[in-house]
């Protein structure tokens, strides 16, 4: 059983925005272990991520000088023959491993050119990270996103997210690099995203995760729940910005100006169902114990260190997210 019951949501610290409400998550018992996130390890040149020798789109080769490298689902890898996203969270040992990925840049494929990936510091969108899509569905989702921002020649998810979320300087660099047009739709989406980013609280002391309530499409639909948490505040502080950005992006491209309301009974029922759900062992990618929860109403994924029940990382959402 995954101990979701150890997680605490502090409702009085909730923040509500158009299309999105965020509640900080804490833990009754934090668990510390010597971990490093994939993005930090790449930046410190402790890990190299590169194309497979056979140029396989669905996998990448990771060579690490460190043990316990945490690869979080939805990590956006920039470079190589085309940008990718990690599709399953895992823990990698020292040495060479393979990780499962999907393409998030449909219009570029040159595996014999640039072999290595230069950055892994950002996340893809909350919809993509919490959902379960095949490659064609992922491309269709990115195409839909571009219709709400701007279209790039390489159909780059990183391009549309940068233009929506990043500073003016980084946005200008992206526009120049990808030679895209910024129109009224682009500006409106960006304005909504930047307005949320400017008002959102920074990570709080002791925080280990986030509980989000957002509309999945029309605001006439019931708002949906998403949860993401890690084993301790140190690890969450490294992830907080990119996870929150992934949620802000989906709120910005939604058509909702309504702020989701917290229904305490429904939130409690969601957490209770996660705790009592039938978590099943998942095939390991690295040295982790992986767990999955797939029910008619819920979907969840968690990774733990071997023989330790506290998740290093957990994601869960309502199944129709």
Automatic annotation (TrEMBL):
Residues 11-306 form the ARG and Rhodanese-Phosphatase-superfamily-associated domain. InterPro entries: ARPP-1. It comes from the Bacteria. This is ARG and Rhodanese-Phosphatase-superfamily-associated domain-containing protein. It comes from Uabimicrobium amorphum.
